[in-house]
Amino acid sequence: SGLCFAGNRMYIADANNHLIRIYDLKTEQVSTMEWKNVSKLVRREAALAATTEIELPPRKISSAALVLDFKVLLPAGTKLNPGAESTLKIKSDGAAVRLEKSDFTFEKDTIAIPISVQPGTARLTAQLSLLYCDAKNAGVCYFKEATLTVPVEIVEGGSAKLAVEFAVLAP
C-alpha cells in the first residue's frame, strides 16, 4: 500500500520521515518529491462562507427528548474516509435546547448527542466538514462542507427524539 507505479517511476511512501521517495526505474536514481505552494492547500476559515447553507424544516419535540441523532447520508457507493477527520460543530442559540458538547468527529454515519430541553424555541446551527471516498477505490475521495440551521420548538405531544439528517448529493 506504500508503493505506486506511474510510467517509469516507483513512488514510495516513506512514512517514518513523512516523505514520498521517487525511484526512477531507468536511471536507478532515488529522489524526494518536493511540494511547492503548500500554503494554498490549507483550508481557510473564509472558505466556510462558501459552504452550502441549508435551512431544514422546523422540528417539534417533547420536553422528554434526551438525544439529538445527527445522521449523514452519503451517496451510494461511498463511505467516510477512515484516514481523515469528518467533523460536526453544533450550537444552540437558546436555552430551550442545551447541548452537553458542541464538537464531534464522525466515526460512523450517525452521532448521538445528549441534549436537555425546556419549553420554548431554539435554532440549532450545525457546521459539517465531511471527507468521504469511493467504497471500492479509496484513491477517489470527496470533500463536502455545509451549514445547516434547524428551528426547534419544545411542545407537549412533540417527538420523543430530535432527529436531523443531511443527504450529500453525488459529486
Reconstruct the topology from this structure.
Layout: E1 3-6, E2 9-14, E3 19-24, E4 30-32, E5 52-55, E6 59-61, E7 67-73, E8 78-80, E9 87-92, E10 97-99, E11 103-105, E12 110-117, E13 120-134, E14 141-154, E15 162-167
Parallel strand pairs: 5-14, 6-14, 7-15
Antiparallel strand pairs: 1-2, 2-3, 3-4, 7-12, 8-13, 9-11, 9-13, 10-12, 13-14
Give the key terms:
171 residues, mainly beta, seven-stranded mixed sheet, four-stranded antiparallel sheet
How would you describe the overall organization of this protein?
By secondary structure, the protein is mainly beta. 0% of the residues lie in helices and 53% in strands. The chain is built from no helices and 15 strands. Strands 5, 6, 8, 9, 11, 13 and 14 form a seven-stranded mixed sheet that branches. A four-stranded antiparallel sheet has the order 1-2-3-4, with no helix packed on it. The radius of gyration is 22 Å and the shape is elongated.
